[in-house]
Every structure is written in C-alpha cells, then in structure tokens.
Amino acid sequence: MSGLACPLCGHGEDFRELEASEPPYRVLACPVCDYGFVHPLPSRERLARAYGEAYYEPWRNEDVAARRRMWAWRLRRVREACPSGRLLEVGAGDGDFLELAAGAGFETAATEFSDAAAANLRRRVPGADIRQGEIEEMDWPAGTFDVVVAWHSLEHMRRPFAALAAMHAALRPGGVLMIAVPNRHNHLMRLFYRLARGRAYPLFSLHTKEIHLSHFTPASLRRAVEQAGFAVRAIEPDRAMVEPAKRVIDALARLGYRLSGHLGTEAMLLTAHRSEDDKDGKA
Ligand SMILES: [Zn+2]
C-alpha cells in the first residue's frame, strides 16, 4: 500500500484491514486516528449507477410509523439547537426530513447526489432550493445558513472532509451543524448479527443500501468535524433504527450508554457549531 495516506490525518502506513469486501475493495482503519475507509474508492460514475430510483424504495414502504417518529425526533433536536431560519440538508435522499422542516417553518435548501432523488425532492418540497451534486461543488454565498444537517449521508461521500469544509463555509458564524452517521463501535449489534447470521457484520458493498465509504468511530468523527473548524458540543446516540429487532438491540446499547457513557449504539448524532467570532471562513 505504498503511497496510501489516511484521508483524515495523513498517516501513511500500518493500516489495519477491517474487511476484505468485494474485490478490489477493502475497508481499512488508520492506526493513528482510527478512521475507517474504503480503498480504493469506487468511481463517481459507479456510485451514480448505484443510486437509481430503486435505491429509495424501502424508505417509502417499510416501517413507516417508526420512520416518522425518527424524523420527528431529529426535527425536535434541530429546533432545540436552532428554532428557525435557513436550513440546509446535505444529502436529503427521499425528502422526509426536508418536508418536515419546511412544514415547521424553516426556509429549506438541500443537496442530493442522485439525479432521481433530486428530481423527486423538487416535486415533494416545491419551495426548497434543491441542488444536484456534492455540497463542495455548490456556490451558495459563505455564511448563508443558520443550520446544516446531514442525516446518514457523510458516510456515503467520496470526499467527506471536503464536504465538511463546505458545510463550515455555508454556515453563518454561530450556526449549528448536526450530523448523524453509523458508529463503528456498534459492538452489540455486531454480536447479534454474528449470532443470527453466522458471519461478520458487513461494512461495504456496492450492492446493498449501505454504500458506506467512511466508517467513523466517535473519536474519528470528532476529529473530522474539529479539523473542518467546528466546535463540537455533543456526540450521543442517534435514533436511526426502524426495524423492530434492531430497535430492541439498539435500546440495549442506549441503556449501556446511559449507564457507562460508552457510545456503542448503531449510529451517533454529533452537534457542533461554527464559532461566533469566526468571520473569515476559517477557524
Ligand atoms: Zn488517520
């Protein structure tokens, strides 16, 4: 692996293999910052093919009530941090959250990598400013937004750290960032998965819904967000599970978090802000 450098901290050797995925892809972890990443990265074209219309089907038809509660909970969390204003959702997917945020009075904008999903978003949330592509390709003026959210989209991006820098620039000084991603320290879920399926919990495949190019731990997520110039307020359990069996396992992991402080849930929610006196776009 000569020439390979950790995308987060730049360290260049002794990467640990977390998973031998579909060839040629592997998931590696950096021995310094513990960031997990797919190597080599799939091309943009290959990823675009994976996010067609069919990708979004389960989001429309399965576990609808639990999904609605999850989005309502996330909106409450956003409003606690930022009650109103201009909201940007990075990777808005099917638009469940964007529609809810627009209904709650936020002035909404969104990015979406998928052509199919972007077209659907324009129909579903007509007043929103929807832009197709990656956040770092957009030209919103610096400091446009009061709050930026990314619900389980950062781990899908080819350039997550460029995206975080773009989120920082898009937020006004004092603005709020909320990011939810899977947690690689989901030890309980991995244990149950192995018991139920007889094999290790999968990290990466181009042929599932979970096309995760980044595998964050609480520490590596914090490092990534701080490196982009944000001040982190909290990293806590995210409520991402909607399937009944997974919800039970994740409730146990949340209980463990309350008792021990160890964040072992399936996903985590980070809240950060851009500092008030950070006027020039770089902390
Ligand atoms: Zn590293």
What's the short story on this structure?
The chain is an alpha/beta fold.
Verbal overview:
- The chain has 283 residues and is an alpha/beta fold.
- It has one domain (46-273): 3-Layer(aba) Sandwich (Rossmann fold).
- It has helices spanning 44-50, 57-61, 64-81, 96-103, 115-124, 160-170, 187-197, 218-227, 244-260; strands spanning 16-20, 26-29, 36-39, 86-90, 107-112, 129-132, 145-151, 171-182, 214-215, 231-237, 267-273.
- It has a 7-stranded mixed sheet, sandwiched between helices.
- Strand 7 (145-151), helix 6 (160-170) and strand 8 (171-182) form a beta-alpha-beta unit.
- Helix 3 (64-81) crosses helix 4.
- The model has no long low-confidence stretch (mean pLDDT 93).
- Residues 6, 8-9, 11, 30, 32-33, 35 line the site of zinc ion.
- The site of zinc ion has 8 residues, from loops.
The strand line-up of the biggest sheet is: 6-5-4-7-8-11-10
The share of residues in helices is 25-40%
**What amount of the residues lies in strands?**
15-25%
| Count of the domains | 1
Radius of gyration computed on alpha carbons: 18 Å
Category from helices, strands and their pairing: alpha/beta
Distance between the termini: 33 Å
> Could you give the count of β-strands?
11
On the 0 to 100 scale, the average pLDDT is 93
Task: Just give the CATH class.
Answer: Alpha Beta
Query: For the record, what is the CATH homologous superfamily label?
Result: Vaccinia Virus protein VP39
Query: What overall geometry do the principal axes of the alpha carbons give?
Result: globular
Individual helix count: 9
CATH T-level fold name: Rossmann fold
Biggest sheet, in brief?
7 strands, mixed
What small-molecule ligands were found?
zinc ion
Any low-confidence stretches, pLDDT <50, length ≥5? Answer: none
Architecture, CATH level 2?
A: 3-Layer(aba) Sandwich
User: Would you list the SSEs in sequence order as H and E?
Assistant: EEEHHHEHEHEEHEHEHEHE
